[in-house]
Design brief:
The complex is a heterodimer of chains A (412) and B (292).
Chain A: H1 2-23, E1 28-34, H2 39-55, E2 60-66, H3 73-83, E3 90-93, H4 98-103, H5 111-115, H6 125-135, E4 142-149, E5 151-154, H7 156-162, H8 170-180, H9 204-213, H10 224-238, H11 251-259, E6 265-268, H12 273-280, E7 285-287, E8 297-306, H13 313-324, H14 327-336, E9 339-340, H15 343-346, H16 349-352, H17 355-363, E10 367-368, H18 376-392, H19 398-411
Parallel strand pairs in A: 1-2, 1-3, 8-10
Antiparallel strand pairs in A: 3-8, 4-8, 4-9, 5-6, 5-7
Chain B: H1 9-35, E1 38-39, E2 49-50, H2 54-60, H3 63-95, H4 101-107, H5 110-113, H6 116-127, H7 133-140, H8 154-182, H9 186-194, H10 199-210, H11 212-228, H12 231-236, H13 248-257, H14 261-291
Antiparallel strand pairs in B: 1-2
Classes of the chains: A alpha/beta (412), B mainly alpha (292).
């Protein structure tokens, strides 16, 4: 009898211990790739991953691995790695890369996750619709994270020195570029250029504003308006209102030139605002890129995706939702100054009181994206910078450049 | 009749290297050849398939290919040419006895042991049109009156990247030629001295002929390496501005990066064939001179 009792005791204990054990989830590790524009953002992402790991309560550990954005080469690196059978479970992502990834079935469909998600309504339906359009299907493969609207940064003190006011029209903007270009120390050399032009990869976004201002668009680069916008862009370079390095200037260069006082205006989004304020204090402000016949500015977007190869999709979605509407959303947008996608986070005072956020919101109605085609990534990384550089240097005319750009994006 | 026993030892010894060679060189090369006959653009996976010679025809009609090929010719000719001349001079200097020779020999190797990516980034900042140290030096010495955007204009971008590859490759030639110089018997120079030969005569009649094979092999290796080099140009200019620094290797890399692997493979095959012709002509020259 005693043996039977001992046997039942052991079995009971085993069942109890097993039951307790089953309430604790198995440990899951999610590898997340991201890019960061500066060391502060890198540290922030690591802190967010640590915070998520400590608070998710589901035994999920996110390992955040950083890779350089490199003017968009990040997306190509991610693609090659995932095609090769490796890569992360989740990654920061751009809309323009969606067709490439969905065409090769590399992204996990998020429809069912979002349908069952309690925070689903925290994000505007229009954003989900944009995600659907980008995929070229009825499905959602990208989780919205934050947006950035491009606008013009300027130095109020420089405007005051030359007696120009904030441009309200496109022609006033071109005129400001001219007036702000000057020799400040009388040595006969230009010290300050009116505009910090981006001629390297990524420069197509500010360039797009010139094209639309003259009545052009991205469907037909060869239209008279588009060619006129291109001519304005060329004239800024030829007349010396932008640094002579413009043909090769990328993100780092235009920001460095603006921060060093070499340029009086440059185009970027709110993500640069903390660094600008750190450098200039109150002597930096912003205005929407003005229009003429038309008006357009680029809506930068950043999403997160779950790769189809991810083995723990529920855990990965927990992390994606933390970034989209959880504490990760607030932390990242607060530090980077990006526009949040979460309605609740948007209402926080820190976002409502920012002058750069106000300009972003002011420019938002004319903000858009480049056509998302299977040619877009090559067009952005190779065709646009080289064709525009050739036009800037006078090797080809504005009309010839626009024909090349039309062919590269639409006819390949 | 006794059957001849085959000794397997040499085959066993060579097999690891052979297997690795087959896996990482031969199979990818075969794959590249096959890809060159296919539409293999990962942006358009539905179109992947055999297209015969279409890639080759497209490339021969591609003006950018011919421009890149011409740039490759200039890149190799000036790059390797000046590397050889300056490397030769450096080797002759390092062959002389002087105080601190060991230190100078070690320091002179720095460009060669520095990774190409780092060299590209380093020189990109040296040449920078706004903050570059080269502009500062030239301005301070009064050589220029205003800063030159070396990498941002066509006239200076390509010479600038060529200068960088020259800087990188000088130590290689210096090292190879120095090793060759140390193998030349001193008796030859002693005999020349007795005959009253001057320095130039000794260089032309003894040093260069004795170094002939070293020069041939090292030049051939360097031609192949420089023609295939991507890292320096890519990190300095990415092939721009306006494709002015785009060699064939950089074009292949850019096309591969754009995921058009069929087109990129076809250009790689063409580049390989060109280099193969150069190598065959080179070796034929070496062997024919040896036979003489």
């Amino acid at each position: 009898m005693k043996k039977v009792l001992v046997f039942f005791f052991v079995v009971t204990m085993f069942v109890i211990i097993s039951a307790i054990g089953s309430t604790q989830s198995n440990p899951v590790t999610i590898t997340h790739w991201y890019w960061a524009d500066n060391p502060k953002y890198s540290a922030t992402m690591q802190e967010m991953a640590a915070d998520f790991n400590a608070t998710n309560g589901k035994n999920i550990t996110v390992v955040a691995e950083e890779y350089p954005w490199d003017g968009g080469a990040y997306s190509e690196t991610l693609f090659r790695v995932v095609m090769g059978g490796g890569g992360p479970d989740t990654s920061t992502f751009k809309l323009t890369s969606t067709p490439l990834f969905t065409a090769n079935n590399l992204l996990a469909n998020l429809d069912s996750f979002i349908e069952d998600w309690e925070d689903k309504d925290e994000i505007e339906e229009s954003l989900y619709e944009t995600m659907r359009q980008a995929s070229g299907t009825d499905g959602i493969y990208l989780m919205p994270w934050n947006t950035q609207v491009l606008y013009v940064y300027y130095r109020p003190s420089m405007f005051k020195e030359v007696g120009v006011s904030v441009p309200k029209t496109y022609n006033e903007f071109l005129e400001s570029c001219k007036k702000l270009t000057r020799d400040t120390n009388g040595d006969g050399l230009i010290d300050v250029y009116g505009f910090g032009m981006r001629g390297a990869k990524g420069g197509q976004e500010p360039w797009g504003s010139f094209i639309w201002a003259r009545g052009g668009n991205f469907t037909d680069f060869t239209s008279a308006g588009a060619v006129a916008g291109m001519q304005d862009f060329i004239d800024l370079y030829k007349n010396g209102y932008v640094p002579p390095t413009a043909t090769m200037d990328g993100f780092q260069e235009i920001i460095a030139n603006f921060k060093s006082g070499k340029t009086a205006m440059t185009v970027h989004h709110i993500g640069s605002s903390p660094g600008m304020v750190e450098t200039f204090g109150d002597d930096v402000d912003a205005f929407p890129f003005p229009g003429d016949v038309g008006q357009w500015t680029s809506m930068g977007d950043t999403e997160n995706v779950m790769l189809e190869s991810c083995e723990n999709k529920d855990a990965a979605f927990e992390w994606l939702s933390y970034l989209a509407t959880g504490k990760g959303q607030e932390t990242w947008c607060r530090v980077t100054g990006n526009v949040p996608v979460s309605k609740t986070v948007q209402q926080l005072p820190v976002f409502q009181n920012s002058k750069f956020m106000k300009v972003s919101i002011e420019a938002a109605p004319v903000a858009g994206i480049f056509p998302i085609l299977d040619t877009t990534t090559e067009w952005i990384s190779t065709i646009w910078p080289n064709t525009v550089a050739a036009a800037l240097m006078g090797k080809i005319t504005a009309a010839e450049a626009m024909q090349e750009l039309q062919k590269g994006l639409w006819e390949e | 009749m006794q059957r001849k026993k085959i000794d397997l030892t040499p085959y066993l010894l060579i097999s690891p290297a052979l297997i690795i060679f087959l896996a990482v060189v031969f199979l990818p090369a075969i794959n590249a050849i096959l890809m060159s006959f296919q539409s293999y653009d990962l942006r358009r996976p539905s179109r992947i398939g055999f297209i015969g010679l279409d890639n080759y025809i497209a490339i021969f009609n591609d003006s950018l290919f011919w421009q890149s090929l011409w740039k490759t010719f200039l890149w190799v000719t000036f790059g390797v040419g000046f590397q050889f001349i300056l490397g030769f001079v450096l080797a002759l200097l390092l062959h002389k006895k002087f105080f601190g020779r060991g230190f100078v020999r070690s320091v002179s190797l720095i460009p060669w042991v520095t990774p190409g990516v780092l060299i590209g980034l380093m020189w990109r900042w040296i040449y920078d049109g706004n903050y570059g140290v080269l502009n500062d030096i030239l301005l301070k010495f009064g050589i220029i009156q205003e800063k030159i955007p070396f990498l941002a204009q066509q006239a200076t971008a390509f010479p600038s990247v060529i200068l960088t590859i020259i800087w990188q490759g000088i130590p290689f030639f210096a090292l190879m030629i120095l090793a060759g110089l140390q193998g030349i018997p001193t008796e030859l120079y002693d005999a020349a001295d007795v005959d009253g030969a001057n320095g130039f005569q000794k260089l032309v009649r003894i040093t260069i002929p004795m170094l002939k094979n070293t020069i041939y092999v090292s030049t051939l290796l360097r031609i192949i390496w420089v023609a295939n080099s991507v890292d320096v140009i890519f990190n300095m200019t990415g092939g721009g501005p306006a494709y002015s620094t785009q060699t064939l290797s950089v074009y292949v890399f850019n096309k591969g990066n754009a995921l058009n692997l069929g087109y990129a493979s076809t250009m790689s095959i063409i580049l390989t064939l060109i280099l193969l012709v150069v190598a065959i002509l080179y070796f034929r020259n070496i062997f024919s001179s040896e036979e003489e």
